[in-house]
Amino acid sequence: MIGVVGLLARDVVDGGASRVGGAAYHCGRALAVLGQPAVVATKYAAADHRLAAPLHGLGVRVEWRSAAVTAAFRIENRGDARQMAIEAVGESWTPEEAGGWVGDALAGVDWVHAGALCRTDFPPETLAELARGRTLSLEGQGLVRPPRTGPLVLDAGFDPALLEHVTVLKLSEAEATVLDLAALAVPEIIVTLGSRGCIVYAAGREEHVPARPLDLADATGAGDAFIAAYLVARQSRQEPVEAARSATAVTRGLLSGWRAR
After folding, report:
1. How far apart are the C-alpha atoms of 95 and 103, rounded to whole Å?
2. How many whole angstroms separate alpha carbon 145 and alpha carbon 72?
3. What is the CA radius of gyration of the chain?
4. Residue 227 in contact with residue 198, Cβ under 8 Å?
């Protein structure tokens, strides 16, 4: 079973209406379509239960708790690039939660993805607890996104202890540019390149995995869908580059299907 732990987000994309976002939703959506046994642990403000309805309707198991605030973002797409602003910073996940109700939800899970939205989402102690007896994947936003409202400006001011228990790190191209990848002690690093595919860093090698371009005005959630598909492939014992190829093809199919709806 695969687990996803992450805050739910309220997204406003290209000036549209508020909609559900965050890895909790987008990874869960991909895992549901793939028929992968999964559990999603998430938090959001109780007043946003209607916003969260699409998550609860996916058909995957969802465990949630009320938070004081729902994380919120404003996104403007510019092809593969995007401009973002943080409108509300969500609550951190505590070690007590990771060893308590979240740990209970993750019973039977052997691969877990920490779907961070900001640097404060997952303190090192929480990631250590999530990784106990499991293979841990981390969303790179948890390294480079400072927890402050306003236009998003990435920086590399993260605590290196965040990576001590991480096996898979997924970064966007923009996130990777502010980091020294060679200095990151993570066995597998995947840098997604939008329509150009991804780069896999594993076992001392770097390999580009190309993608067939897909014309999408809004690719929100594509990175989450990719890492969900990648973890499915890795759990089935595919090697990192092979898993990235599988995930690239699967993600294209998922995005095509979502666009057609």
Report:
1. 10
2. 14
3. 17
4. no
Bridge partners (DSSP) listed for residue 135:
111
Residue 54 φ/ψ, nearest 5 degrees: -60, -35
DSSP state of 73: E
Contact (Cβ atoms closer than 8 angstroms) between residue 143 and residue 160: no
CB 206 within 8 A of CB 188: no
CA 42 from centre of chain: 12
**Residue 66 neighbours by CB distance under 10 Å:** 12
Distances (CA, A) of 102 to 48, 105, 114: 20, 5, 12
38: number of CA atoms within 13 Å, CB side? 32
Is the four-CA dihedral 95, 142, 188, 214 of positive or negative sign?
positive
List, for residues 46-93, the tens digit of each pLDDT value: 999 999 999 999 999 999 999 999 999 999 887 667 889 999 999 999
pTM of the predicted protein model: 0.94
Beta bridge partners of residue 139, listed in sequence order = 170
Tokens of 70: 């729902």
